[in-house]
Amino acid sequence: MTQPIFMDLGHPRDVINRWSCQGPSQGWVKAEAMADPKLIVVSVRLPVRISHRRGEWQVEPSPGGLATGLRSVAQRRPFTWVGWPGTFVSASSQETMVKLLESHGVPVFLAESEYQGFYEQFSNRLLWPLFHNISGRLSFDRNAWNDYRAANRRFADAVCEVAQPGDTVWIHDYQLTLVPRMLRDSGLDCAIGFFLHIPFPSHETYRTLPVREEVLQGILGADLVGFHTYEFAQHFRNACLRVLGLDSERDAITQPSHLAHLGVHPIGVDPTEILGFTTLPGVKQELADLEREFSGKKVILGVDRLDYTKGIPEKLLAFEEFLRRNPDWRDRTVLIQVASPTRTEVKEYRELKREVDELVGRINGSYGSFSHTPIVYINQSVPRERLTALYQVADVAFITPLRDGMNLVALEYVAARGPHPGVLILSEFAGAAACLGGARLVNPHNTSRMADVLTEVLVNPATPGETFQQMQEFVRSNTASAWANRFLVRLVAVHESQRFGARRLRFEAEQPYAAPSQTRALLLLDYAGTLHPHVPILSEAAPDARLKRVLEDLGGMARLYIMSGQPADVMDDWFGELPVGLVCEDGLAVKDPGEDWPQMPAVDGAVFEDLVEPVMVDFYEHTPGSRIEHKKAAISWRYRAADPKLGPRRAKELYAQLEDLLHGMPYAVKAGKRAIEVRPVHLTKTSVAGALLAQYPEAEFVFCAGNDGPDEEMFEVVLRSKRQHLYTCYVGGKDTVGQYFVESPDELVAQLETLAWVWSGCQVPSS
Ligand code: ADP
Ligand code: G6P
Are 374 and 319 in contact (CB under 8 A)? Predict the structure, then answer.
């Protein structure tokens, strides 16, 4: 019944044929430029089933929920799928396999040992239970983590081979969390989307993951991260805050490189296809057989993979309790439980199978009779068409996962019923519970209450009509293809919005430059977060050899000033030997290149001590983890170690109080990175920038880089200076008054290297 996937997807073969294989070592390459940008879908498996029979490989399409969702999208645009073919292929057969799969997608080959660590261990024995909030089943193994990273790298490399600037890449699920960051770091100029098909746990659970930072950072490489429910998105946002210290806007995580937007996009099914199945003669026959078989009985249905997240034992226990309490119903009720085998190589799944086998045996033994078996247990995968006959015959769908991303079975049941309402008993821990208002929600941990609900819906049934219709409306409007469209439209929109008004700094493309004469070019460079990533420990903040080299080169060709919050002695230590100027303590004093520090200005501390400090002490006392820092020309309240939700809230209050207190006085209140600072207005970076511009009136090339609000104030001063070539560059992904942006200090340093090459007359090395 199933058709080849790309025929099914309406995917024109000629699109795929424009790709040619140059052998597995080189992977796939583009044979000719494609007019339209394409969609690249990346999932752990290609939607195919491969077998090796009579010495030959056989490929059958195996479209799951994802392929259903992408069918209509793939009909409209160039499309390719990147994934593991689902089998191990020796190096000598890989080329054959690539050809064989030509019309299905781009295969990523994995070695068997790597697959075990990547898929069985790290994905399915650690991330799967952890994300489903099932503790006691966690097993972290560093080798498995290394395999996970290596396998993710293979997927990312495969994407890089086929991607062109302007394409859209959509990565799916927990097995591939590192791919978005890998793609971003590779400089791919594509919109990058990630969708998590399983739940995201609360941060309390998530933070127990030994590699929690890497996994979060991996996902955050995406422009858009999609979840089935608002709750999962909120958990993710909290984890970003609590684990990485990243703040968020209303629906985006703010990070140094870019905004990672969060989207709530519950997946759907294809109700037209499902209703179509019900008209097939075979399905009609199956339904007639089932109706005859269970005539006069109430049918309860469960359809699940045999997975410990699905709450199958809990469901069986609830049914057992229902039978115990309702002797009259023992011969009149049947529970059909279809449980398809899954991940049978994993120990926990084999244990679950034993447990379910035993429970079914016990219940059937206790409550069955010669003429009736209460539980019909089918431990097999059932063709999708036949499932619709089961959905149609079932008076009640009984779906009780302990945790579930969405649960498509719930949607399929609603879709398959057509005009005949049914009862959906659904775990409140399934993502679908957030969409299906007409379901009878249950807590699967409370088997006794589930037995009550079974009694209510079977013994004293209410007419389910109206509430069922509401669910059908949801299923009809929120189809799988609507889901894919919504996600992709939003992805492209947020990707485009990342660029804001600023252009990406590319010195190799910028013309003309000012001639390299020391006094004709002025470079004002903030340090922490701009030339060097923010780090919590001072010893890690020192510049490395590469950075020093480029500063030295540029310092020899221009007037270059480094601005930092560090005191003069630390700056001397870091940059003392370089031909550069230094600005210490965010504007306290300026040391010109080759000169000594001037006398440090005397700052009247009375305002700090008498007015500001008492207010800050009050905040310090009520905000555990915060501290007060005294510098020569500033006093600040710092809250990096405070609770990440409490700290920013208190900071807002403190900022407002200090603004009020110092109104009309020559002191500036600044909100910096996890700090509120007060300093005299004439000792800020902005005032220093103004003074340096005045000091070098002949500088016609001015470049200024920074990464926060005070730096943007400097940009404004620079932009007002009316020199011939002005460059203000923001480091990070946010809307900025700067004309240019780069995503990271690393990218800025690379651009400064380019500038140095151009100025020294060297050819710019191609990247
Ligand atoms: P999960 O993705 O965790 O397996 P879902 O309920 O979201 O759970 O999706 C399961 C999909 O697999 C549904 O489309 C369902 O029809 C199908 N399915 C579940 N159990 C079986 C089975 N025994 N035989 C065939 N298909 C099944
Ligand atoms: C869930 C996951 C999918 C996974 C599927 C089947 O739906 O979200 O990513 O493919 O289960 O898992 P399996 O390991 O049996 O392929």
Answer: yes
Cα–ligand 2 centroid distance for 305 (angstroms): 9
Q: Omega before 697 cis (within 30°)?
A: no
| Separation CA 567–CA 733 (nearest Å) | 28
The answer to whether 227 and 265 are in contact (CB under 8 A) is: yes
Confidence (pLDDT) at 40: 97
Q: What does the pLDDT read at residue 187?
A: 83
Ligand nearest to the CA of 397: 1
User: Is the CB of residue 299 below 6 angstroms from any atom belonging to ligand 2?
Assistant: no
Residue 607: count other Cβ atoms within 10 Å of its Cβ.
Answer: 18
In the reported structure, the alpha carbon of residue 404 is separated from the centroid of ligand 2 by a whole-number distance in angstroms of 12
Please give the pLDDT value at position 594. 93
| Whole-prediction pTM | 0.84
Domains and CATH numbers, the chain: 13-264 (3.40.50.2000), 272-478 (3.40.50.2000), 503-601+684-759 (3.40.50.1000), 606-680 (3.90.1070)
65 CA closest ligand 2 atom index: 7
Closest ligand 1 atom to 378 CA: 23
| pLDDT score at 21 | 23
Q: In 10 A of CB 743, how many CB atoms?
A: 20
Whole-number Å distance between alpha carbons of 679 and 99: 67
Structure tokens at 277: 């199945």
141 catalytic per annotation: no
303 — pLDDT class (breaks 50, 70, 90): very high
Share of the chain above pLDDT 90, in %: 75
Q: Which amino acid is at 482?
A: A
Considering the chain, what is the average pLDDT of its residues?
A: 90
More confidently predicted of 566 and 26: 566
Q: Measure the CA–CA gap between 307 and 301, rounded to whole angstroms.
A: 16
Spacing, Cα 45 to ligand 2 middle (Å): 9
Q: In this predicted model, what pLDDT tens digit does every residue of 540-585 receive, in sequence order?
A: 999 999 999 999 999 999 999 999 999 999 999 999 999 999 999 9
Amino acid 428: pLDDT: 98
Residues 147, 270, 304, 526: which is the catalytic one? 526
Query: Which atom of ligand 2 lies at the shortest distance from residue 198's CA?
Result: 8
Q: State the pLDDT at residue 53.
A: 83
C-alpha separations of 603 from 149, 409, 558, 600, 606 in Å? 53, 70, 32, 9, 9
What is the enclosing helix (H) or strand (E) of 305?
Answer: strand 298-305
* The residue type at 377: Y
CB 685 within 8 A of CB 526: yes
Residues 6 or more apart from 663 whose CB is under 8 A from it?
none
What would the pLDDT profile of 40-74 be if each residue is shown by its tens digit? 999 999 998 888 888 888 888 877 778 877 887 88
Atom of ligand 2 nearest to the CA of 175: 9
Ligand 1 mean position, distance from CA 383 (Å) = 10
DSSP H helical ranges for 270-402: 271-278, 281-293, 312-325, 347-367, 384-393
> Which strands form 423-427's sheet, in the order they lie side by side?
375-378, 333-340, 298-305, 396-399, 423-427, 440-442
Ligand 2 touching residue 343 (CB < 6 A):
yes
pLDDT computed for residue 256 by the predictor: 77
Q: Which of 240-249, 263-272, 321-330 has the lowest mean pLDDT?
A: 240-249
Whose C-alpha lies nearest to ligand 2, atom 7? 197
How far is the centre of ligand 2, averaged over its atoms, from the C-alpha of 70 (Å)?
Answer: 17
Q: Considering only 53-62, 430-439, 597-606, which range has the smallest mean pLDDT?
A: 53-62
Q: Is the CB of 198 under 6 A from ligand 2?
A: yes
For the residues 573-599, what does the mean pLDDT come to?
95
Ligand 2 pocket, residue 342 CB under 6 Å = yes
| CB-defined site of ligand 1, < 6 Å | 65, 303-305, 338, 340, 381-382, 387, 406-409, 412
**Taking the CA of residue 385 as centre, how many other CA atoms within 13 Å lie in the half-sphere pointing to its CB?**
13
Nearest bound ligand to the CA of residue 127: 2
